[in-house]
Specification:
mainly alpha; 75% helix; 12 helices
Length: 314
């Protein structure tokens, strides 16, 4: 393996761990929180099976392009230098601090900064849509649904039904998220993968996912647990389903990559605002928490822009 190939696969591996470690908690965080009593390997087998199926489906139906055509405007790099390892390494560092940065901006912008404006517009629209829908939905259901979640314990039959519903909603959301975020990882590899490249990359992804499940989500999981009732399987089901439907909408809208982090933060912010208003009370701390989460994703955007243009100046 020559130096360029080594950099390509190191970049893919670093990106795989960084993206899975940072972004996957958006989709699997509530799933992990509400299934803490189950062994991590059971949860990993479920999520890993969906990952493999989604990856193989894209490979078969898009002529070897597992990004689902989301890398159409990102030219394949056949001769990478060491600087291309910086974006996932920076992301890896930020992930360990628990900052929910956007991998789409941090990695994809480095490969083609001309698409940044379109990505910002689509991601900002995703935040606003998720925030608005979450506020509207939870204004309607908080008095009944969230109050019931807090005040009643499920019997065995109810828990069984909600468990099935949650695993289905999580599976749907996980597949929609993967279709969006495969681009952030596979930007390092050829646009049309050989069978060996597909298998090798899948093994790396599944290994990274296993480690994240073993670690129970890591630092980013703290953001999920800090929100009201996210550990209850009933609340987790509603969050996952709404998030999945929003990502499906943007998947069908166009093939411009977007930040799923912004959508996720917007969804949790709208949900928290509605619940606090209807069920508890709005305080300065509520708005402070929402503002801090939003500030963190903007910080990720600033870091990605600074990294791209800083290296170009150098």
């Amino acid at each position: 393996m020559d130096t360029s190939q080594l950099i390509i696969w190191l970049g893919f591996t670093f990106a795989a761990y960084s993206v899975v470690g940072n972004d996957s908690i958006q989709t699997l965080g509530t799933f992990l929180s509400s299934n803490e009593k189950k062994h991590w390997s059971t949860l990993w087998l479920f999520a890993g099976s969906i990952l493999a199926a989604t990856l193989i489906y894209g490979w078969v139906n898009y002529g070897g392009d597992v990004s689902y055509d989301r890398l159409a405007k990102y030219p394949e790099m056949t001769d990478m230098s060491w600087v291309y390892l910086l974006p996932p390494l920076v992301l890896l560092t930020l992930t360990r601090t628990g900052i929910p940065v956007s991998t789409s901006f941090l990695i994809l912008t480095f490969f083609n900064e001309k698409n940044m404006v379109d990505m910002v517009i689509k991601s900002g629209s995703g935040y606003l849509l998720a925030f608005g829908l979450a506020v509207a939905l939870y204004f309607l259901i908080t008095n009944i649904f969230e109050k019931e979640v807090r005040s009643t314990e499920m019997n065995a039959k109810q828990r069984s039904k909600w468990t099935i519903a949650q695993w289905c909603s999580t599976g749907f959301l996980w597949a929609m998220w993967l279709i969006q975020d495969f681009a952030n990882i596979y930007v390092y590899l050829p646009r049309s993968l050989t069978l060996m490249e597909l298998i090798s990359s899948l093994v790396i992804l599944l290994s990274m996912l296993a480690y994240i499940f073993y670690q129970k989500g890591g630092n980013i999981q703290k953001i999920v647990k800090a929100k009201t009732n996210t550990t209850d399987i009933r609340s987790a089901t509603i969050i996952d389903l709404l998030f999945g439907l929003i990502l499906l909408f943007f998947k069908e809208l166009n093939n411009v990559p977007m930040s799923t982090t912004w959508v996720f933060i917007g969804l949790l912010a709208g949900r928290e605002l509605a619940i606090k208003y209807k069920f508890e009370e709005l305080t300065k701390d509520t708005f402070k928490d929402i503002g801090m989460d939003l500030a963190k994703v903007f910080f990720g955007l600033i870091v990605s822009i600074g990294l791209v243009y800083g290296l170009k100046l150098i």
